[in-house]
Every structure is written in C-alpha cells, then in structure tokens.
Amino acid sequence: MRLQWTDSLTDAVGYLVVHTLRGGLATGGTRMRAGCTLGEVEDLARGMANKTATFDLPIGGAKGGIDFDPKDPRAVEVLQRFCEAMRPWLDAHWVTAEDLGVPQHLIDEVFEKLDLGQSFHAAIRRAADPVATLARVRDGLNAAVDGGFLLGDVIGGYGVAHACLATAVQWGQAPAQTTVAIQGVGTMGGAAAYYLHEAGMKITAVADAAGTLSCADGLDIPALLDLRDGYGEIDRSRLPEGIEQLPRNAIIAADVDILVPAAISYAITPDNSYDIRAHVIVEAANAATTPEAEAMLAARGIPVLPDFVANAGAVAWAWWLLLGEVDDTPDTSFDRLRTTMHDKVAQLLTAWTDEGVTPREVGHRWADDPSPLTGPVVIP
C-alpha cells in the first residue's frame, strides 16, 4: 500500500509504504531528507519486511519518508503534520521510530503533541496495561549505558559492530588486526564506531557530510564523537592533531578490511564500486548498495552483509522490548543481540566461502520463510 501526502504550507511531500501486515501490524522508521522519493521508501519498506521475517518478529514491514530538509527550521512542524495525516495508520497499524533526519526524541515529542504517547503507540495500545507497557518501553529506551549514551540510541550500532566483529571471527582475525572505515557518524554509525573501538578494532577513517577524516594509526573515536552536533557532523575546528582531512567520497576507497556505509541509501553504486578496496561491506545504512554495484562487488570476491541482517538490531531489540523479552537491563539486551548477530553472520559468510552464495541471497531465503503466526500478537 502506498500513500502520498503533500504539505499545504511548505509543499513538502511525504510517503507511507506498507509492504506487509502481519497480525495487523507493520513496523518501520520515518525518515526526512531533501530528495526522498516514493521508490526509496518502497525499497526501505521491503527491507523492513525482510528484517522482521529474518529475525522472526511477528509483524510486517513499512516505512515513512518525507522529501524535506531536516535542517530547515520548519522541519518539526512538517513532521507533525505528516504524522497527523497518517494518524489512522499510526494509531492502529504502523509502529514507527527514528530514521535518517528524524531522531527518536523528536518523533516521540511529535507523538506526545498528538496525544499518541510514543512512536510505538500502535503496538502499545494493544497491551493489557498500556500504561505499564509504555513505562517499560520508555525505561528501556532511556536506560543509561557506558559512554554517556542511552540504550535506545546505541543498540542498532551495537548490532552493526558485532556484525563486523563476527566477520573478523569468521576470518580467524583478531579485532586489533582488523581495520574499518565508517561512512556516517550519526546514531547508527557513531554507535557502531564506539563499540568497534571498545572492542579493539582500528578505525582508520570516518566520514560525515563535511568530508572524510583519516588516520592510519587509528582514530580516537570517543574524542571525535564528543565533537558531533545534532546532525552527526564533527566540528573541524576542534579536531585532535594527526588527522588528515579528505573529500567526503574518499571514504569509499579507504584501504581497510571492512567498509561500513552508515549514512545514505544507494551510497555504493556501479560508478564507485571499483574504488572499493575493503574485503567486505557491512551495511549499516538501509539500501546502502545498489543491486548492480553488489553484483559487481561479488564478481570481485567482495561480499555485502545486507542491511536487513547487519542493521536489524534496532528493530529486533525494539520488538523484544515490546514483547517483554528484554527489559531496561542493558547487559540482557546486549547479550541477546550479540549472540543472535554472530550466529546469523556466521551462517551468511559460511555460505559465501563454502558455496559461493551471496549473503543477500541467503538472507532472502530466511526472509521468504518467516515463522508462522500461531495467534494474535500479544503485547504484555
């Protein structure tokens, strides 16, 4: 199902695509960026359906997108009017959350203004005690973790980090001997960088909208993350010494073991795929690699761990929280996601090395055979 909305005050255009309903529910974030298209939102909704099926979640996939600059001072008002227009779906069927250009705290503020409580509203309203379920969700999202972060902000990046760590394990390579480049240091890329740094991997390059920052000896990731603004951009005026500043697109050609595109969709295309020197791509951004570019990379022996596995930690965890399978104890969530991600990545890379089957093809086999629903979705 496709819905298109035009804002009468700004001419911003918004889209909702529901790919699959399961148990009357679909889940997927809402993004905002200038140039967002219906085709992009369709791809992302399809990806969400793949994520929920791959992680055996009892819901379908959807996505929202708004063609508008999130830095525009009118952006919050546009987001609120979009959500108001989509209210019938947000009230009963569509569970949304943060995405590119829309942080979780902002979409939650909009939901409060609309008297919908929180962006998981369509699921929470089904609970026997919605007030208690909302409290559990908020406690989980706001649980404090090391580094001064909140659990809900970092769990997706933690999953990406462990997709990278599982890749190194599969190679038999120690984290300290593994180099990584990360395109994007917002919510997802920043958290992935933090946990990879904590695990001892050497991150030699990161990129934001202003360019690429490089250091062959490894970047001080916590120091750089402290220099970010609200849009995930690093203040160049306060950079530590020894960092080389390069053009934004230089990140694609970084000489590293693992490249993590964690910014925009369609970042890796046929035009730049031959610049890639990494041995594996781990997609932290949704739809980061075009199908044509992925085929070209596979022909060169470079596998792509698809987004609907590598970055699915955020949606999997959110539903584990909604279903009462994890709580606000961070270690419980981290342990479950780490174990799940390592198992899935090991299966993907084993099929690649032993049979020459791409990780995406294996992942699609999982997504095409979801666990059957045995009854209505019960939110405790």
Structural class: alpha/beta
Oligomer: single chain
The helix/strand series, from N terminus to C terminus, equals EEEEHEHHEHHHEEHEHEEHEEEHEHHHH
Mind telling me the C-alpha Rg?
20 Å
Termini separation comes to: 29 Å
Shape: globular
Unreliable stretches: none
Model description:
There is one protein chain. The protein is of the alpha/beta class. It is 41% helix and 16% strand. The chain has 14 helices and 15 strands. It has helices at residues 38-54, 75-85, 87-92, 104-113, 121-124, 130-141, 151-171, 187-198, 221-225, 291-299, 307-310, 313-322, 330-355, 359-367, and strands at 2-6, 13-18, 26-27, 30-33, 60-67, 94-95, 144-145, 149-150, 179-183, 202-208, 211-214, 244-246, 258-261, 280-282, 304-305. The strands form three sheets. A seven-stranded mixed beta sheet has the order 12-11-10-9-13-14-15. Strands 1, 2, 3, 4, 5 and 6 form a six-stranded mixed beta sheet that branches. The protein is globular, with a radius of gyration of 20 Å. The two termini are 29 Å apart. The relative contact order is 0.13.
SSE arrangement:
Blueprint (H helix, E strand, L loop, with lengths): L1 E5 L6 E6 L7 E2 L2 E4 L4 H17 L5 E8 L7 H11 L1 H6 L1 E2 L8 H10 L7 H4 L5 H12 L2 E2 L3 E2 H21 L7 E5 L3 H12 L3 E7 L2 E4 L6 H5 L18 E3 L11 E4 L18 E3 L8 H9 L4 E2 L1 H4 L2 H10 L7 H26 L3 H9 L13
Parallel strand pairs: 3-5, 3-6, 4-5, 9-10, 9-13, 13-14, 14-15
Antiparallel strand pairs: 1-2, 2-5, 7-8, 10-11, 11-12
Helix pairs in contact: 1-14, 2-4, 7-8, 7-12, 7-13, 13-14
